[in-house]
Predict the 3D structure of the following.
Amino acid sequence: MRRITSPARKIDWPKKAPAWVALLVALGTLSVLAAGAGQRTEDAGSRDWPSYGGGPENTHYSNLAQINRENVSHLEVAWTFDTGDSYPGSEMECNPIVVGGVLYATSPKNNLVALDAATGKLRWRFDPNGDRKIVGKLRNRGVAYWAGEAGENDRRIFFAARQYLYALNADTGQVVETFGSGGRIDLRDDLGREARDSVTMTSPAIIYKDLAIIGSGVSETLPAAPGDVRAYDVRTGKLRWSFHTIPHPGEAGYETWPKEAWNYSGGANNWAGMSLDRQKGLVFVPTGSASYDFYGANRLGDDLFADSLIALKAETGERVWHFQTVRHDIWDRDLPTPPSLVTIQRDGHEVEAVAQPTKSGYIFLFDRVNGKPLFPIEYRKFPASDLDGERTNPAQPIPVTPPPFARQQLTADMLTQRTPDAHRAAMEAFTGLRSSGQFVPASRQGTIIFPGFDGGAEWGGPAFDPATGLLYVNSNEMAWVLRMVEQKEDRERPTGQTLYRTECSACHGAEMKGSPPEFPSLVAISKRYEDDDLLLFIAQGSGRMPGFLRLGNESLRAVMRFVAYGDVTSVEKHSASPFDMKYLSDGYNRFLDSDGYPAIQPPWGTLNAINLNTGQIAWKIPLGEYPELAAQGMATTGSENYGGPVVTAGGLLFIAATNFDKKFRAFDKATGKLLWETTLPAAGNATPSTYEIKGRQFVVIAAGGGKSTAPSGGSIIAFALAATPSESDRTGSGKLGR
């Protein structure tokens, strides 16, 4: 535990900085988006959905049962709300919260809206953007609710946008001026060193008593900010404690890094959100990999507390226990979701446990109090890296039980059979790649990562049914290719080209073709952006792309000129630093066939029910499909999916998530049988919420689309059982396609 008092963050700008730099400073452009999480008032007995994931335990469970197996087929649209601010490529990942009849959600442009949860009528709207031009994807997965003590008329929503965490009046949407500086805190502050790059949030904070406990999103390349976990006073915005996930000298785990790594290394951050046991006062923090993701010569060692599940005392930030799921991660195996706090049966007794899904397709299950594994874990040996300067850990922890919910190794007999040409192309590509399963190091020839960089499990997270002990996890089953490229740059006088290679090619590729839609092609970008807009975009960043204002004006313009026009004019002298990487990846590349479909046999996405009492998979089904393939007779292939499930006492599991078919579905939670589905106006890449108002149960989903080149949208849609005539006349009521 560390209690820290930090000086205000200062940046010395050039005296003759161009006007656009002043604009960036005014608008706060070094980061992307953020969110907060909520405070549950009645736990499993609540009729609300008062925090991200339904409650601080993150079980996605509701005891509501008005909508059940017998009547779910009668669901209809109760109301819709169009945020009105979607744009090409935008997304909408928010899990709405509902407190006291008011629904709070975020829009594609990261506006915060408060709606009447019974009718969808707008109560207020908060726009943090001002006149700032929106470029790229803005992601936000939720907000936080806090209420003062009984008799205290103080209810707040904590909402983060770019590098700021705001406190808003829950009733009016007005900024609470007494919080932080004018109603907000700067997430780049209080990190123990200057944040050289963006610091954001995409998942909600956890509220514990009068603390807002937050993680962060930071750059996945260097330089990157450290991933400190921090707790702020909800009333004043003052820092109360901080936990260094990259340990400082004298702290536990310091010996697992190079001695000076705490000064320059970054990442090991909690971007996925946290879970809280309020009774025990424990907050459970899953972390991601250290930066840079795929080459770790400047961070040799196990790199604690990257890729770890950490139990902290919520009051003080003191570490109680931890478990590192990947040692010296060079595969981007972040823990992608808050764990679920569950109660299981073991030897006739109840055990309070914590279940952590992973991108690699495994579930780790621990005793919540002491971190003892509740199923066996083996440390298995894996190959060493053959990249100069890299040293992998010889062993990684693998759960023996439950079995993995995603396939673990891609072999030649698993390649696509969709068409003879597709199979032939896949075989030709596969023959030149390494494919030996999990934790095979990156290579210059290319290594298959399977499950891919986006899981296995992803940020949507699992749902847990306390009545049966079943944990429900949706999974991606996509193969990706990790290929490393040696960097041979002119350090004395780098050009826009060499700067692009070191700063940008890891995502957009050496040939600027990208990996759409997550990492768009930059080819012919000068036809899509004016020079000033492109320069602004490179400087400020957006979505997963960090801002590069730190490079300075001349270097930024050199990158812009190279990307837009191929200009290779050299710029200022560049001295060696720990941020220099001998190898970088050539981008995030899905393993696709010649027509752009997955180059492996289905399923390409699944929904899994895992019995945590026995460690067995209860059922598994494909999740999603490609409508055009289904029309050709190739249905139920499964597809990439983002956003989690919700399980209810009515015997149902609700999930949208699928990228291409835009479906929202209800399954029998015991068997996986499909009971109801509807087609949304855009893909529901978000986790639904369910709540009850005046005796009527609603299920709501954000339909934002925008993934995998799918159309974007901006609707929040609530479903309920068929209404009375007077109710059906409400604005937005009607049926969607079934």
Q: What stands out?
A: The chain has one domain: 31-408+450-478+602-728. The chain is about 10% helix and 30% strand. Residues 126 and 173 are 6 Å apart (CA to CA).
